[in-house]
Amino acid sequence: MGGQRKKDDGTGGDAALLRAVAQGDATAMADLYDRHAGWLHARLTRRCGDPEMVREVLQDTFVTVWRSAAGHRGQEAGGWLWTIAARRLVDARRAQERTARVAEPVPEPGFAGRYEPAAAPSAEERVLAGLEYGDVGTALDRISPELREVLRATVVDGLSTREAARLLGIPEGTVKSRARRARAELRAALEQLNPSPLGGTA
C-alpha cells in the first residue's frame, strides 16, 4: 500500500490513482500530474500559441480533476483528461474573446446551440477513441492536417461544433464540412490499412 504506487500499466495505474484522488489523496494527485502533465502541455501547445494560456489551462485541468475525480467512470484516463483540458481551453478562449470585446453585448443569450446533441457513435468513432494507438494513428497521419485537427476536436475531444470552431479559430460551417471530408478520408485510409475494416469476418 504505502511507498511506491503501481505505475507499470498506464490504464490500471491511472484508475487506481484516480480512485485515490477521489478520496483526497494529494500524493496520488501529484503522481497523476507527473504522469500526464507533460503530454497534456505539449498537446495544448499545439492548439494554442499563448504559453500563459496553456499554463493556466493545464493548471485548471488538474484543479478540475482534483474536484471531479469521483466522476471518472473507468474510461481511458488519458482521453478523460484531454477532454477536460480541451474544454478548459475552449472556456479560456471564450473568456479571452469576451475581454477583447467588452464594448459589445454578448450575442446569443441563453444556452441555445451551446450543447449540441451528440450523434450516436459510429464504429469509426469508437475506433478513434484509441487515436494515439495502432492503425488509427497511422490512418490519421494519412489525412490532411486541417481535417485531422477537426476530427480530433469533434470526435476524440468530444467538443460540439461551436466549441471546436472556437478552439480551432474557424467558422462552424467549416468545422462541419471538414468533419465530413475527414471521416470519408479516414474511412478510406482505414480500409487501406485493414481491408476487412471495422469488424468483418477475417
CATH class of the largest domain: Mainly Alpha
Q: What is the strand content?
A: under 5%
Provide the low-confidence segments as ranges.
1-11, 110-127, 129-134, 197-202
CATH superfamily of the largest domain: RNA polymerase sigma factor, region 2, helix turn helix motif
Largest sheet: none
Give the count of helical stretches: 9
Which bin fits the share of residues in helices? 55-70%
Shape verdict:
globular
Beta-strand segment tally: 0
- Please state the structural category: mainly alpha
CATH architecture of the largest domain: Orthogonal Bundle
Pattern of helices and strands: HHHHHHHHH
* Mean pLDDT, all residues: 75
Task: Provide structural commentary.
The protein has 202 residues and is mainly α. The chain has two domains: 1-102, Rna Polymerase Sigma Factor, Chain: A; 119-193, Winged helix-like DNA-binding domain superfamily/Winged helix DNA-binding domain (Arc Repressor Mutant, subunit A). Helices cover 66% and strands 0% of the residues. It contains nine helices and no strands. Helix 3 crosses helix 4. The termini are far apart. GO terms for molecular function: DNA binding; sigma factor activity. Residues 32-99 form the RNA polymerase sigma-70 region domain. Keywords: Sigma factor, Transcription, Transcription regulation. This is RNA polymerase sigma factor. Belongs to the sigma-70 factor family. ECF subfamily.
